[in-house]
Prior knowledge:
Layout: H1 3-9, H2 14-23, H3 27-35, E1 39-40, E2 54-55, E3 61-66, H4 75-87, E4 92-95, H5 102-112, E5 117-119, H6 121-131, H7 141-154, E6 158-161, H8 167-173, H9 185-197, H10 202-205, H11 207-217, E7 220-223, H12 238-256, E8 261-265, H13 271-284, E9 290-293, H14 305-318, E10 323-325, H15 338-358, H16 362-376, H17 380-386, H18 390-399, H19 416-420
Parallel strand pairs: 3-4, 3-10, 4-5, 5-6, 6-7, 7-8, 8-9, 9-10
Antiparallel strand pairs: 1-2
Helix pairs in contact: 1-3, 4-5, 4-15, 6-7, 7-11, 13-14, 14-15, 15-16, 16-17, 17-18
Pfam family, one: ThiC_Rad_SAM
EC number: 4.1.99.-
Keywords: 4Fe-4S, Iron, Iron-sulfur, Lyase, Metal-binding, S-adenosyl-L-methionine, Thiamine biosynthesis, Zinc
Amino acid sequence: MTQVTEARKGNITKEVKIVAKKEKISPEKIRKMIAAGKIVIPKNINRETSPCGIGDGLKTKINANIGSSSKMENLPLEIEKAKTAVHYGADAVMDLSTGPNLNEFREKIIDEINAPIGTVPIYEAGVATQRRGEPITSMNEEDMFKVIENQAKEGIDFMTLHCGINRDLVNKLSNAKRTMGIVSRGGTFLASWILHNDKENPLYDNYEYILEIAYEYDITLSLGDGLRPGCLQDATDISQIQELVNLGTLVKKAQDASVQTMVEGPGHVPMNQIASNMQIQKTLCHGAPFYVLGPIVTDLAPGYDHITSAIGGAIAAQSGANFLCYVTPAEHLSIPNLEDVKEGVIASKIAAQAADVAKGLDSAWEKEKEMAIARKTFDWNKQFELAFDRDKCEKYRENYPVEEENMCSMCGEYCAIRIAKDDF
């Protein structure tokens, strides 16, 4: 049983009811959209968690990446990052660990985080290969699928699988004259494997087997964009679009197999190309939910990429993207700390809210109206309650106190709202 099979039978699951209540829309509307493949609810049958809906007509959702690396592994800190991300509004968390104790960390995050959890299984397969003293290009095909099945049994809710890269695309890539080649870690693992073994991508070649696993545990497939652009010069090139065409075919197969599916999108895209990228994906991928990293709109702001990605994310979500993967200030520089995680989530929340307002979602406009009334009436507690970062707001107010409640230290007694409150 999957959410799709139940939806196509006309059944409204408990997860659909929960999502409908959160979104303030009818369960029947969500059921129909799940049946059509335009909404997913990532929730493994082996795990109880607070479900969220991702797709058209719903609020834009946020994902936060956390996890250890081979150069830095602090499991308690990574758990704290995940909790921080959820506290500040992340709807889902992805574990991208490649450290020595990645399996232990995955078990802990599944137990401690009450939100959908995603992974990239090819990372574990690659790490296991290197632990044996072999290069990643020596990954065993059976090991790749064993990792996918084991993580499904553990309770992982959605998985990034780079099924769209095939031999044809890899062979053409050398002639593509890309500035940065492949920047996707999972994409590189598989593209290099294809070249060194002169064989087809096992995830592409055995896609039907992946669908069987996904169906059994109701895993939501997040079809990875292994050839996403890693700089503005490579955006919307032939390689990216050709992989997207492959992904569209794979989405259709998954939808026919009653498997929940979403598609991952580009990372570095000029602002003027974002809307067209969203429209192309929705057309080629049969309306499947679109999950984008950023997009980052300029490559000149290391240390501030939470801002460059929020700009791109707002445009992307307004234009059709449904799921924003946060980018932290540490992107391209280092593993993020707790403050980086917080800033990354809040920047993405700003982008999502701005897009939802632009799309006319009632729930987004209700909050905007509440904030306007709170500001008009000098209701500071309500303003702090609605703010994405209450602590920061309260700290500013405490650091610059004033004698009266109906003013702040910016304008004081010359506050426009205070002066004209009885006139307009």
